[in-house]
Design brief:
globular; mainly alpha; 366 residues
Length: 366
Amino acid sequence: PLWVGISAGASGLGLTLFSPIAGVLVDRYGRRDLLLATLVAEMTCALLMGVLVHTGNISVVYVLLFAFIMRVNGATRYSSVSALTLDLVGRSNLLKGVAANFFSMTIMGVVAPVAGGWIIRSLGVPYAYYLIVGASLVSLVILMNLKGIKAPEKELSSHVEDLIEGAKFVFNTPIVRMLILAILVSETFGWAVESMLPVIARDELSLGPEGLGYLMSAGAFGAVIPSIIISVVPDIKNKGMLMFIGLVCFGSGLVLFALSKQLYSSLLFIAFTMGSATVYESALSTLLQTSVPSNMRGRVLSFQTFSWGFSGMAGFHTGAIAALFSAPVAVAAGGVIVLLNGLRIGKKLILLARDSQRSVSSRLDS
């Protein structure tokens, strides 16, 4: 459990350290071009890892370095994708666009873990990395056909000035500050479940790589359902209430999953947990993007990506707790904290979100 946690921690560290810089890049340069660059980098890293494993030259150091570099690359990728969503669908359809984005990711999340588990069992670990190379190549070809995305206007200020300006905006805007803090809590204590899934699958449910793939696919399948519903229903006005419900259910689901000792109930609870997380993340991303001016969007969204890195770094303390007690104890403790935080900010979240949407509407009408 400790090395699993350390690997997740290295991954989160890379995402957190580079995210603020990535936000500046997203606000300054073409988001499509940045995405293309990240896909090329991802293919290169995965290919190198596959060759290292294939030739028997792999070591723990290389695994940790790969996790770190992939998340450094991911910092730019995630911020670019988030900013591009509003560029493509517009403000009025943003919640649906965010949900559709989650849908596309979770569909692959259903297929990829099962395929990865089968490939590892049947062909070996190197071919799992080669699968990443192939998937990235397909994404690269599709993205190259995306046209009509304008690059941001060039800024006269320096990169450092842009970075400071973005940080000031986040800390001085109540709704944005509260949303970022909510992400930090849920990522640090809730999403740490991701680093513990292999441990729970092996030690608590007696599952191998293929069984872990089914567990991960169940979570992804659970996320698909709300993403479909949100993307097709009429626009939900009170997104603060939607986020509150998702956050509370997310924390509750983590506790239920940690307490489960049977495979089928674990599959059900992880699906419920990830479905709730999709509701919470979709509402939060929409609130965040509609609460900031267009020229600040990349930098503000980079703080969201910055917060995502804490789910990986949480592997450090979660791995330690799991080593001292057990993985279920670590996951359940995180779920309780997420649940309590959701209850704590619930009323304020709903009111602030409502006020923020009114102010945004008034600015658009004027």
